[in-house]
Every structure is written in structure tokens, then in C-alpha cells.
Amino acid sequence: MDARADAVSGALAGAAAADAAAREASTLDRLALDASAFAAFHAATARPLWNYLRAASGSAALADDLVQESFLRLLRAEQLPPGDEERRRYLFRIGSNLLHDHHRAARRFVDPPAGWREPEAPPAAPREAPLSRDLLRSLEQLAPRERRLLWLAHVEEASHAEIAAATGLAAPSVRVLLFRARRKLAALLDPADRRRAR
Questions:
Q1: pLDDT at position 51 over 70
Q2: How far apart are CA 104 and CA 20, in angstroms?
């Protein structure tokens, strides 16, 4: 009797392991990537996504969480765009949506306690040019949507159509909103421009 129970238990464990392996293979098949191709995609997109979410949110810790959740949702997606560039835009769209959801949920909570400081961002990768302190301070004064638009347009060098796809905005709206965000940022950087920005 014990031999039968052991055999059934072993068969169930083997079936569960096979099922888990099939699910993992299915996920990579859906992505049309093998493990090394996904690692390369992650290496190419994780840092730019983190930089974008850090600039848009103003929080290194939040950017860390959103990047992880973005890749998790990418892996769980039923269908993905076929090429790397389309997947990259889709990943940025996921990150933008998660950031938007976070800001919407954060409106329900009180401000952090006095004296709270956000942890410092990890050092920038060598290929990245550091942003000036004035620019960072000015970006922090912009609304989150304005920061996202400016980051995508000028750092990620995305077109208006790509920005619209990443943010969920209409393409004609992106042009107008970017114009306003640029004007507002210029006014923050140069006090002489403040009169013209209003």
C-alpha cells in the first residue's frame, strides 16, 4: 500500500514540476524570446525605464518597485508586440500606467512625516550624462505628467506617436502638452521667462 502511495505522490510531484516548466516555456514562447534574449532585452531596457520612472516620480524606491512590476506584467501578458522596439514601448506603457495608478492611490494618503527624506538614487551608469541640480529641482516642480512627457521626448528621444502609445494620450494632445511643459520648465530654469510662461 505504501509503495502505491509513494508512486502516486511521485507521479503528482513530477506532473507539477512538468507543469511549472511548461508554464515557464510558454511564457518565453509568448514573448518569442529565449532566456538569453530576454536577459539582453532586460539589460537594454531596465535602466532607461528606471531613469524614466525615477524622473517622473521623483522617487528612487518607487522607481525600483515599478520597474520590477513592469517586467512582471510584461512576462504575464497574453500577447506582446513582435519586435524589441515595440516591446520596449509596451514596457514603458506598463510603467507609465503603474506610475499613474500609484499617484491616483497616493491621493488617498497623508503626506510623509516631517523630516522624511527619499533614499538617494543609485549612481548613474557611466554612459549617462548627469543632470544639473537646477534641472532636477525644476523637474521636481513640474506635474508628474509633464515630467513623463519631457523625459520621453528628450531623454528617450521618443516621437509624439511613441509618447502617445506609452502614456495613453492622444497624439495631437502630446504635442500641445509637450509645448506647455517645455515652456513651464524654461520658466523654472530662467526667472526672466516666468512672465512669458503664464
A1: yes
A2: 35
Contact criterion met (CB below 8 Å) for 152 and 163: yes
CA distance 8 to 15: 10
- 166 CB burial (10 A radius; 0-12, 13-18, 19+): buried
> What whole-number distance in Å separates Cα of residue 10 and Cα of residue 12?
5
Distance between alpha carbon 139 and the CA centroid of its chain, in Å?
A: 18
Coil, helix or strand at residue 15: helix
**What is the per-residue pLDDT across 134-170, written as a single tens digit (0 to 9) for each?**
777 777 888 888 888 888 888 888 888 888 888 888 8
Give Cβ neighbours of residue 120 (< 8 Å, ≥ 6 apart). 60
| Sheet strands (E) in the chain | none
As a whole number of angstroms, the distance between CA 18 and CA 113 comes to: 50
Domains and CATH numbers, the chain: 15-107 (1.10.1740), 132-198 (1.10.10.10)
Going from the C-alpha of 95 to that of each of 4, 23, 54, 168, the distances in angstroms are 50, 24, 11, 12
Q: Which residues contact 31 (CB under 8 A, 6 or more apart)?
A: 38, 74, 75, 80, 87
The three cell numbers locating residue 195: 512672465
Distances (CA, A) of 105 to 8, 99, 101, 109: 48, 10, 6, 8
State the number of CA atoms in the 13 A half-sphere of 92 facing the CB: 27
